[in-house]
Write a structure and sequence with these properties.
Blueprint lengths: L4 E5 L4 H12 L3 E6 L2 H11 L6 E5 L8 H8 L8 E4 L14 H28 L4 E6 L12 H21 L4 E8 L8 H4 L2 H10 L8 H12 L10 E4 L7
Parallel strand pairs: 1-2, 1-4, 2-3, 4-5, 5-6, 6-7
Helix pairs in contact: 1-8, 3-4, 4-5
Length: 248
């Protein structure tokens, strides 16, 4: 059996980059989709893989796209997609009463609309080709609880779980699975501003049973599990990688 081919969005930094590295380590062929081609080129050189195994697509997912065309461009002959990981993300920290319509729509597009449209485009290709597959979404603590001063993000991440459950049920007859990984507080560019405050950092660490921040590689390990054969009977689920935050 040939190595699986997985499309990873948001692959130029943080969790997306760690996911791409883990999948390549596991033997997959990966197409990286991100806004920055420079960082992706540096990544490929660092991990020492060929262009055949680690291709790159420079794209700004915050703008309108024809996702069927994007999937067709990624799926060159012999490179059909077996999986997709939606790791692109951004953050907006301000009180809800100060959030404007454009800001809300931007967060909803990046975290909810784009993953929905891209997954359904990938699914159309997989169904047409008679192939199964695995789709992994990145959820959040905000999929389950409120995050102060992050209402657009929380709204989008709550919606992600509705998409996951719906796709899991609708696509199951085609052998396509949909799941999510929900990270807790992980040290990335998106949390750098929050963690720069010693008070906030101590609050987070004190609230996390394991007493530390997560690492992107730990989220990547969970994603790898959900993409692989060991999770073949798992769909419509969320795997929390939060150090016990939601259990406490």
């Amino acid at each position: 059996m040939s190595a699986p081919h997985v499309l990873v969005t948001g692959a130029s930094r943080g969790i997306g980059l760690a996911i791409a590295e883990r999948l390549l380590h596991d033997g997959a062929s990966v197409t990286l989709a991100a806004r920055s081609s420079d960082s992706m080129s540096e990544f490929r050189a660092r991990v020492g893989v060929s262009e055949a195994r680690c291709r790159m697509v420079q794209i700004d997912l915050s703008r309108s796209q024809d996702f069927d065309d994007l999937v067709a461009a990624v799926e060159e002959p012999g490179q059909r997609l077996d999986g997709v990981v939606h790791a692109a993300g951004t953050q907006l920290r301000k009180p809800a009463i100060e959030v404007g319509e454009e800001e809300l729509i931007r967060l909803l597009r990046i975290h909810l609309v784009v993953p929905y449209l891209l997954s359904t485009a990938v699914a159309r290709s997989q169904i047409a080709g008679g192939r199964g597959g695995s789709h992994v979404f990145i959820a959040s603590l905000g999929s389950s609880i409120a995050i102060p001063n992050a209402s657009p993000y929380t709204a989008a991440k709550s919606g992600v779980m509705g998409v996951v459950r719906s796709l899991a049920v609708e696509l199951a007859p085609h052998g396509i699975r949909a799941n999510a990984v929900a990270p807790g507080y992980v040290r990335t560019d998106l949390t750098a501003d929050l963690l720069s405050s010693s008070d906030q950092r101590e609050r987070i660490l004190g609230r996390t049973p394991l007493g530390r921040l997560g690492q992107p590689r730990e989220v990547a390990a969970a994603v790898s599990f959900l993409l692989g054969g060991d999770s073949s009977f798992v769909t419509g689920e969320v795997l929390r990688v939060d150090g016990g935050w939601l259990s406490a």
